[in-house]
Amino acid sequence: MKIVYTDLHKRHATDHTLFEGHPYSVEEVPARAEVLLSAIREAQIGTLLTPADHGIDPILRVHTKDYVTFLSSIYEAYTALYPQETAVFPGTFATRYTGQKPKAMLGLLGYYASGWGSPILEGTWEAAYWSAQCSLSAADEVLKGGQTVYALTRPPGHHASIDLYGGFCYLNNAAITTRHLQHTQQGTKVAILDIDFHHGNGTQMIFYTDPSVLYCSLHADPNYDYPYYWGFADERGMEEGEGLNCNWPLPRETSNAEYLRILDEALKGIHAYDPHFLVVSLGIDILEDDPVGGFLLSVEGLREIAKQVAGLGLPTVLVQEGGYCLDRLGDGIIAFLDAFM
Ligand SMILES: [Zn+2]
Q: Is pLDDT at 97 greater than 80 in this prediction?
């Protein structure tokens, strides 16, 4: 299996985040990608590729130009005004959303951010940009005839929407991949299967009215877990996309057996949709003991999930999303990739 990765994720150096001079703890740290990479190297499970630079155009097929300009420039503008700060956080949020976009920097931060967990650091834009390039290069390999390619992306992407960042996500890698597949091969239908512990609200929003993309997500019940305001079963898509957004909110402590039963339903839906490609938002925070998760899935369970998804027989781009238990990420990714092959 080909695996696309770059060290540039380290530019998003969240392990040293400060808020007003005090350490600010973020679970989404560079060590996550390093653990995944060293497990892959140790298991000799694939061939590593460096991403090619596709430029900004594929990113602008998903995100607005204003948003991309904001993300790529806010750190410099903010620290010019507040030179003592090394991380950018919003202060207020555009709640009870009016659609009004202010001009002030502090207003824009709360307009474009959905939460507090996603600091913007000096290298955040560069890391997010190259994370997207990893997933684009993975898509290229699949377009060239590769059956399954894994994009080891960091930061993750599925909580980022058209002009919204949050939940550790800035650019939506799975959505950018999907649009790239469709741009390169016109008329292509894509199914996105999101198995991260959390609902991929960003991905859902991007494709909510789009009949050319089926979005299927198994995730923690948003009544009790992030992202709280999206991911309910009655969110089914709208207009031409009606019926093509499928959410399976699951209770905390969901077991292997229960998860696999629901996954089977999702895979039947994907098979019936008959897509040309599959994009998997691969969150390993479904494993038990994940500090941000809450399911009871084992590494063996993850292996079984991979087998069942691979059974669809579709050309597949695997895009790394969450997964925060540094002790188990390595075993998890190896089990998944090994079973997928
Ligand atoms: Zn997650």
A: no
